[in-house]
Design a protein that fits this description.
Chain lengths: ~120, ~400
C-alpha cells in the first residue's frame, strides 16, 4: 500500500508562497524579473575602470564638500566673533599666512574657472 | 575651564575620532570650551590595505597617501611630533620636540607595527605586504617568479586571544596571488602552500582565526588548487637555503615566503608602562565596552593598539570611533560615558582580484561566510579608491 507523502512546509515557506502567489496573480512578478535582469546586466556591464572613475568623481565631490563646509563654518565663527574689519583691518588680515594661502587658492580657482568659460 | 582632548596618532583611528569628536562637540568648540589637538609622527596618512594591491601590481602606492592636514576638520589642531612618554599623574604626553601636551582626555591611537626580528631569519628570508616598502619588494619578487613555490605563513601575538593586523588579509592575498598568477599565465608552474599556526587567537589546529570560516576554507582552497597545512607555527627561517621551520618540527622549502609577521604595539605604547601584555607586545588593556584603558578614567584607546579579541581592521575602527567620541562628549557634558562597544566589525574581504565578500561579526557571533560577488568587489574597490577618505573625514 502506498503511503501518502506529505511535504512539510515551514511557516516561513508558506508565507513566502502566499506573497509570491499574489505577485503572480497581479502580474507584478514580471516587473520583479525585469528589475533583476536589469540589475544583473548592469553588474555584468560595469567594469573595474568605470568603478574607479566613478568613485574618483565621488571622492572629488566629497573633498570639495568637506573643504567648503569647513571653510563656511570657520568663516561664520570668525565673523561672529569679530567686528566687521576696517580697510586697514582687512590689510592686517592679509598678514596671516592661512588667509594668504586661502586667497591664493581662490585666485587660482578663479583662473581655473576662467579657463573653462 | 576649557577641556583639552589630545589624540595621539593620525591613522585611521585617530583621524576618524578627531573628526567625529569635532562634529559632536561643535557647540562646545564654538563657545571655546573644548580644544582638540592631534599629534602624529607623520605628515602623511596611509590607507594601509592599499599595500596589498601594490604587491600584485594593481597600484603603485601613491594613490593611497594623503596629507594628514587635508583629512582633518579645521577645528582640530594638528602637529607633527612623535609621542615618547605619557605621564598619567600629571596628565601630559611628551613629544620628541620637547613639548608637553597636557590633556583632560587622551586617545591613544598609534596602531601597531611589524616585528620581523622576533623570528630569526624572517627579515632576510621573508616578505610581507603589511607596509608599502614591503609590498614593493614582494611585487619585485613576483615579477621575477616564473616557477617554484610560494609559501604563506601566519604568526599570532603571544598575548592570548589577540589577533594579528587584519585577520582576513592572509586569505585575501593567497586568493589574489592565485588570480595574479593565472593572469600572468604561470599558475600551473607555481605551487601555493597556505599554512596556519597551531594556536590562532581562540582557534586551535585551524586555518583561520574563527571556526566557521576555518571550516569552509579547505573547499575554497581545493577549488583553486591551493595546498594547505595547519599547525605550522613558524619559528625560524633559513634565508640561504630558503627553508621555513615550524615549532612543531616541520620544515618547508620555498622560493618566496609571503608571511604575516609578528605584530607588536608601537614603541611609545610599549614603553608607556600602561601595558602588561606578555612578551613585551604592548597591547593596551582595554575595557571591551567603554574603550577606556583599564584603570584610567581619562585615557581612551581604539584601533590596532588594543588587546580586544576583535580584528585589527579599519572596519572595526569605524564602529569603535563613535563609541569613543560619544563617550568623551558625554563625559564632558554629563560627567559619565553613555555608549558601549558591542565588538562589531564590518568589512568586505577581497577574495581574489575581482570578487568581494561582505562580512560582519561581533563579540557574540563569528563571521558567517557568504558567497563572494563581483558587486562586492566593486564596493571594496570603491572603498579603496575614495570612500575611505570620506570615512576618515567622518562623512560616512
Ligand atoms: C596589508 C593590509 C591590509 C589590510 N586590509 C584591511 C581590510 O581589508 N579591511 C580593514 O578594515 N582593515 C584592513 N587593514 C587594517 C587597517 O589598515 C588597520 O587596522 C588600521 O589602519 C589601524 O588604524 P590605527 O589608527 O589603529 O593605526 P594606523 O593606521 O597604523 O595609524 C597609527 C598612526 O599613529 C602614528 N604614530 C605611531 N607612533 C606614533 C608616536 N609615537 N607618536 C605619534 N604618532 C605616532 C602613525 O604615524 C600613524 O599615523 C589592513 C592593513 C594592512 C597593513
Amino acid at each position: 500500500m502506498s503511503e501518502k507523502v506529505e511535504v512539510l512546509k515551514t511557516k516561513e515557506m508558506q508565507e513566502l508562497e502566499e506573497k509570491f502567489a499574489m505577485l503572480v496573480q497581479t502580474g507584478r512578478i514580471d516587473n520583479i524579473i525585469d528589475l533583476l535582469a536589469v540589475v544583473s546586466d548592469n553588474i555584468e556591464m560595469t567594469t573595474a575602470p568605470m568603478v574607479d572613475k566613478m568613485v574618483g568623481t565621488i571622492d572629488n565631490l566629497a573633498t570639495a564638500g568637506f573643504i567648503t563646509q569647513n571653510a563656511v563654518r570657520y568663516a561664520n565663527r570668525e565673523i561672529k566673533k569679530n567686528e566687521v574689519p576696517s580697510l586697514f583691518g582687512l590689510l592686517k588680515l592679509l598678514k596671516d599666512e592661512d588667509t594668504r594661502k586661502g586667497l591664493a587658492f581662490v585666485l587660482h580657482l578663479t583662473k581655473g574657472i576662467g579657463k573653462q568659460v | 575651564m576649557k577641556k583639552k582632548i589630545l589624540i595621539v596618532g593620525g591613522g585611521t583611528a585617530g583621524t576618524m575620532t578627531a573628526n567625529n569628536l569635532a562634529k559632536k562637540l561643535m557647540y562646545e568648540i564654538d563657545k571655546d570650551e573644548v580644544e582638540i589637538t592631534m599629534i602624529s609622527n607623520s605628515k602623511y596618512h596611509y590607507y594601509r590595505p592599499g599595500a596589498m594591491y601594490v604587491a600584485f601590481h594593481k597600484a603603485s602606492g601613491h594613490e593611497f597617501v594623503r596629507e594628514q592636514r587635508t583629512l582633518l576638520m579645521p577645528e582640530v589642531k594638528f602637529l607633527v611630533d612623535e609621542a615618547i612618554e605619557i605621564d598619567t599623574n600629571s596628565n601630559y604626553v611628551k613629544g620628541k620636540s620637547g613639548t608637553k601636551y597636557s590633556y583632560d582626555f587622551v586617545i591613544l591611537a598609534t596602531g601597531c607595527e611589524v616585528a620581523v626580528d622576533r623570528i630569526p631569519g624572517l627579515k632576510e628570508g621573508g616578505n610581507w605586504f603589511y607596509s608599502y616598502d614591503g609590498a614593493k619588494k614582494l611585487a619585485e619578487k613576483f615579477a621575477e617568479l616564473k616557477k617554484g613555490r610560494v609559501l604563506v605563513t601566519v604568526n599570532f601575538p603571544k598575548t592570548p586571544d589577540v589577533p594579528h593586523q587584519c585577520g582576513i588579509a592572509p586569505i585575501e592575498t593567497t586568493i589574489m596571488l592565485h588570480d595574479y598568477l593565472k593572469e600572468q599565465g604561470i599558475r600551473e608552474d607555481i605551487e601555493i602552500i597556505y599554512t596556519y599556526p597551531k594556536v590562532a587567537q581562540a582557534v586551535t589546529d585551524g586555518l583561520f582565526l574563527q571556526g566557521p570560516t576555518s571550516k569552509v576554507l579547505p573547499s575554497i582552497f581545493d577549488g583553486i588548487g591551493v595546498k594547505y597545512k595547519t599547525s605550522f607555527t613558524l619559528n625560524k627561517v633559513d634565508p640561504e637555503k630558503k627553508i621555513a621551520y615550524s615549532e612543531e618540527g616541520e620544515e618547508i622549502e620555498f622560493d618566496i615566503l609571503m608571511s604575516t609577521p609578528p605584530f607588536i604595539a608601537t614603541k611609545f605604547i610599549r614603553e608607556s608602562g600602561l601595558s602588561k601584555a606578555v612578551d613585551d607586545e604592548g597591547w593596551l588593556p582595554t575595557d571591551k565596552k567603554t574603550l577606556k584603558v583599564k584603570g584610567y578614567e581619562n585615557i581612551y584607546t581604539l584601533g590596532d593598539t588594543v588587546d580586544l579579541p576583535v580584528s585589527k581592521a579599519g572596519g572595526t575602527i569605524h564602529n569603535q570611533t563613535d563609541v569613543v567620541a560619544d563617550n568623551i562628549a558625554s563625559e564632558i557634558r554629563y560627567g559619565y560615558p553613555t555608549e558601549s562597544y558591542d565588538g562589531k566589525v564590518i568589512a568586505i574581504a577581497q577574495m581574489g582580484l575581482s570578487c568581494g565578500m561582505p562580512l560582519w561579526y561581533d563579540y557574540k557571533e563569528d563571521v558567517q561566510p557568504t558567497p563572494c560577488s563581483k558587486l562586492g568587489s566593486f564596493v571594496r574597490k570603491g572603498f579603496n579608491m575614495g570612500i575611505y577618505w570620506a570615512a576618515a573625514r567622518g562623512m560616512v
